[in-house]
């Protein structure tokens, strides 16, 4: 396979069309937009593919996973911005893991996409300066992408984010979170399951806060009980002793002696109950393991998170639910960047190429009477082409002083000193060419459709008889799509002549037809690729046609035959115009002679 063919095979429209076909989704290449409407993926059409190629295909795989597996109504059921963000986050994990299982190759492009997102700073780690909702979201995002999808770019960000959230959220929340993720992540079967898990995570935070509040109340009650018992002991032993009992303050009064210190301690406990957990967590039961130090760290950061109400009168859970300042979706940021790049590359021109617009095969009408002139013209063209071909490929031979084959008739000349008795032959040259003919059958072709049909059938019959050449033909618009095959490569032409008698209707989706033809030519093993377009030269989207021309330049020889119009000159370098069947033979012979290199 030559390098030019490889480059064409890897071109964005070719690969996007193949991906869309493989994934079972509709893909439209757009010069200005990047989005998904639930059925069709609008992929930005970029010129510079060297840096963003794999990133773009990763984005395509991500959006294809959504189209294949997501219920776009689920997000409408969310009751808060945080719930919606968490649901979308979990859904991204679910659908990317699913498409990687079905199409393992997507793991590489999805990795490329996410690495680019991280490198561009579109998804940073959590920081102490972030609000609590942002901290939790970024922690979950990078943790799940690292642990579940094995996105290496997120691993250090997950570790960094964990250190931040451990200073903000109760220890009990992380215990519950680990349990929820371990139980449900591998059992997510639909988008609604992701919503349920998101709600369970937020409820786990509420439960952890309530648990910590209850623990603090119990701790304060225990401290109060211990203090009361100590006071009673002092009163019981102080009547005949040192006189400390006389200095013990009454409730609500502050004494200047040691009793004042005791009452100050009680005041600290009460203040802790109202505002924060203070140092109370250090007195928790040691059976909690390292929970005491983690909870202490959380207190240092948020201060008021340990109680149902903080400085603004809301619990940590309530603040998360009511938070509206949340991180922008990272893939959404990438989508916007790609769309901006596409608009720049295409100068804002609204280019649109539907890559999944192939309809059913053209019908065989049986009646070939309207093709009679084209069939007759093909005989003359074929005879002239074969004559030139034979003249070009006829072996030339001459005599040489060395070689492997001796001309016996020349041996008698050896005594005279003429040693040219060996026969040398020139290698035979034969064209090795794949041809695809595109036939315009749009409504504007109505009055000249018969001439166009005759030109197409003439080419098909003539080229199919040339050694080492084969031909395919398609019509646009097609039946049930933008393009439909008339003749598949390798099929006998005469058996399907009735398919060439097409009728005019619809628009002129020339760009989609050219993309289909390019894909079909790439699949051929022939060294030379030729595309012949028979049209009146008025496409639906001229910008898309110019883009496809630039795409195939250097890979495919493109020729255009304008039927009764010179409009083809605006889009193609190699073109000719015919107005009636009398000019058909000359035009077709000239074009065929060019791509067959017959002089």
UniProtKB/TrEMBL annotation:
Gene3D superfamilies named among the record's database cross-references: von Willebrand factor, type A domain
Residue ranges constituting the VWFA domain according to the UniProt record: 434-599
Pfam families: CobT, VWA
SUPFAM superfamilies, per database record: vWA-like
Bias-annotated ranges (Low complexity): 215-236, 264-278, 287-307
GO biological process assignments: cobalamin biosynthetic process
Protein known as: VWA domain-containing protein
Species of the source: Dasania phycosphaerae
């Amino acid at each position: 396979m030559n390098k030019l063919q490889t480059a064409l095979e890897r071109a964005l429209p070719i690969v996007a069309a193949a991906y869309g076909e493989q994934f079972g989704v509709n893909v439209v290449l757009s010069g200005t937009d990047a989005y998904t409407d639930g059925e069709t993926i609008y992929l930005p059409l970029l010129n510079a593919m060297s840096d963003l190629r794999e990133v773009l295909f990763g984005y395509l795989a991500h959006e294809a996973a959504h189209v294949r597996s997501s219920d776009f109504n689920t997000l409408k059921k969310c009751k808060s911005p945080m719930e919606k963000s968490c649901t979308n986050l979990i859904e991204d994990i679910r659908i990317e893991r699913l498409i990687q299982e079905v199409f393992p190759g997507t793991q590489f492009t999805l990795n490329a996409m996410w690495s680019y997102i991280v490198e561009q700073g579109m998804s940073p780690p959590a920081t102490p300066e972030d609000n609590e909702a942002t901290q939790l979201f970024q922690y979950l995002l990078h943790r799940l992408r690292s642990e579940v999808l094995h996105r290496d770019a997120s691993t250090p960000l997950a570790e960094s984010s964990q250190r931040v959230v451990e200073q903000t959220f109760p220890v009990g929340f992380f215990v519950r979170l680990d349990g929820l993720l371990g139980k449900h992540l591998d059992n997510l079967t639909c988008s609604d399951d992701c919503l349920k898990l998101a709600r369970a995570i937020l409820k786990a935070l509420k439960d952890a806060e309530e648990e910590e509040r209850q623990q603090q109340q119990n701790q304060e009650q225990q401290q109060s009980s211990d203090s009361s018992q100590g006071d009673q002991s002092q009163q019981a032993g102080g009547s005949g002793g040192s006189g400390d009992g006389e200095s013990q303050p009454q409730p609500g009064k502050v004494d200047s002696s040691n009793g004042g210190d005791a009452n100050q301690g009680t005041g600290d406990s009460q203040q802790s109950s109202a505002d924060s957990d203070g140092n109370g967590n250090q007195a928790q039961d040691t059976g909690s393991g390292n929970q005491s130090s983690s909870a202490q760290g959380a207190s240092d950061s948020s201060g008021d998170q340990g109680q149902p109400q903080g400085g603004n009168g809301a619990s940590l859970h309530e603040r998360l639910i009511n938070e509206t300042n949340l991180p922008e979706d990272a893939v959404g940021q990438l989508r916007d960047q790609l769309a901006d790049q596409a608009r720049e590359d295409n100068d804002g021109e609204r280019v649109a190429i539907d890559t999944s617009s192939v309809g059913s095969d053209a019908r065989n009408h049986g009646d070939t009477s309207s093709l009679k002139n084209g069939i007759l013209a093909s005989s003359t063209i074929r005879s002239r082409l074969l004559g030139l071909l034979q003249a070009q490929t006829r072996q030339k031979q001459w005599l040489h002083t060395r070689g492997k084959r001796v001309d016996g008739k020349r041996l008698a000349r050896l005594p005279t000193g003429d040693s040219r008795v060996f026969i040398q032959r020139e290698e035979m040259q034969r064209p090795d060419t794949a041809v695809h003919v595109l036939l315009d059958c749009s409504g504007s072709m109505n009055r000249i459709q018969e001439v166009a049909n005759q030109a197409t059938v003439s080419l098909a019959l003539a080229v199919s008889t040339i050694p080492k050449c084969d031909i395919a033909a398609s019509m646009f618009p097609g039946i049930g799509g933008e393009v439909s095959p008339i003749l598949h490569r390798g099929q006998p032409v005469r058996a399907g002549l009735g398919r060439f008698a097409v009728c005019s209707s619809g628009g002129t989706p020339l760009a989609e037809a050219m993309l289909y033809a390019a894909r079909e030519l790439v699949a051929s093993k022939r060294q030379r690729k030729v595309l012949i377009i028979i049209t009146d030269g008025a496409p639906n989207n001229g910008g898309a046609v110019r883009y496809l021309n630039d795409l195939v330049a250097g890979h495919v020889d493109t020729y255009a035959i304008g039927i009764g119009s010179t409009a083809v000159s605006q889009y193609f370098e190699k073109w000719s115009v015919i107005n009636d069947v009398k000019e058909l033979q000359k035009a077709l012979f000239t074009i065929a002679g060019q791509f067959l290199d017959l002089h």
